[in-house]
Every structure is written in structure tokens, then in C-alpha cells.
Amino acid sequence: MHLISRIFLIGYLLIVALFFTCGIGLIVLSAIEAWNALNPGVDAPVRARFEILLECIGLLTIAVASLELGQTVLEEEIQRSANISSPTRVRRFLSRFLIVVVVSLSVETLIGVFQFVHSKPEFLPHAASVGLAAAAILATWGLFVRMNTEAEKLEPEAMAEVKAEDDEVEGEDSGDPRPQTEPVHANEIPPHHTPGQPHPAPPRSPKE
Questions:
Q1: What is the radius of gyration, based on Cα positions, of the chain?
Q2: Disordered: where is this region (predicted)?
Q3: Gap between the Cα atoms of 64 and 75, Å rounded
Q4: H or E, element range at 29
Q5: Taking Cα atoms as reference points, which of 46, 65, 69 lies closest to residue 108?
Q6: What are 129-153's pLDDT values in tens digits?
Q7: Which pairs count as long-range contacts for 129-132, CB under 8 Å and 24+ apart, including other chains?
Q8: Which residue from 68, 89, 106, 132 has the fewest beta carbons nearer than 10 Å?
């Protein structure tokens, strides 16, 4: 079992490295295209330069998505070893992924509108469909977060463990490995406890 875990860890590290490589490559390609669009020595109309710059924005958007996804996999699967059975971890992992998707689709919608509004207006419905897809994902994501919050109230110990793990990871990044929050087990949480509120201190034994 330990060997299989190591294999998965190596696989995640390769995925993070490839995401980072693709993101850097897209940034380099965008810089080259931007130079071609802004190069004063090239005789090109303003409209052509504008379309090249729009393509650069699209490349940079995909680069940001690639880097953000790589960072998400690094933090959730390697540093924190995310357990998908916890509703808090599910919400955080999916939220970090979906926000990249929604922002990328929204930017692509704007790029498509700017490109097609003057040259090919018959393609505007295609750009609008991408925007509608982004809006549908955003609305569904909001509904999921609302329903998942109710599920988190049923497992306050899972939320406490996630917060303790976050403090530990942040402490390692800042050079202080001591967690600010200790993990709380299920038998230590009083009934009807609301997540986010401090836990009451255990009763002290009377002094003799």
C-alpha cells in the first residue's frame, strides 16, 4: 500500500511539473505574439495587430488556468493529501478548479465577442453560448456550495481537521512548523456545535 501511495505521489508531481511547463510555454508564446503585434518594424494594419493581441490574452488566460491547476494539485494532493470523503475538502478542491474554468470561459467569451462583432457577426451566438455555459457553471457551483455548507454542519470535526491542516501547511511555508489549531476529534465536540465557533474549554477538576 505504501508503494502504491508513492507511485501516486510521483504521478501527481509529474502532473504539477507538466502543468507548470505548459503554463510557462504559453507565456513565452504569448510574449512572442505580443512582440509581433507591437513591433514597429512590421507593416501590419491595426486590426491585425488587435486580433494578435486578443490571441495573446487567450494564451495568457490558458496559462493562468494551467498554473492555477498545477498549484491546486500541488497543495491539495501533495501537501495536504486531500481526502475526498470530507465535504469541506470537496468544496475547497472543486471551488479552486471551477473558479479557473469560469474565469477562463468568461475571458474567452469576451475575446470571441471582440473578434466577431465586426468581422464575423454570424459567429456571435457561438461566443454567447460559451458565456451561457460559464453562467450555468457558476450558478450550479453556487448551488453546490450552498448545499455542501449544510453537509459540513453535520461533520464539524472534519472542518476542524481541515483548518488544523491548513495552519500546519501555512506554518511550514512561513518557517514555523507548529500548527495554530489542534485537530479536534468527534468525541471532543459538544452536540449542537456550530462550525466556526470556538469550542468550549473542558471542565477542570476541583482542586483538593
A1: 24
A2: 155-208
A3: 16
A4: helix 2-38
A5: 65
A6: 999 999 999 999 889 888 877 766 7
A7: 130/105, 131/105, 131/106
A8: 132
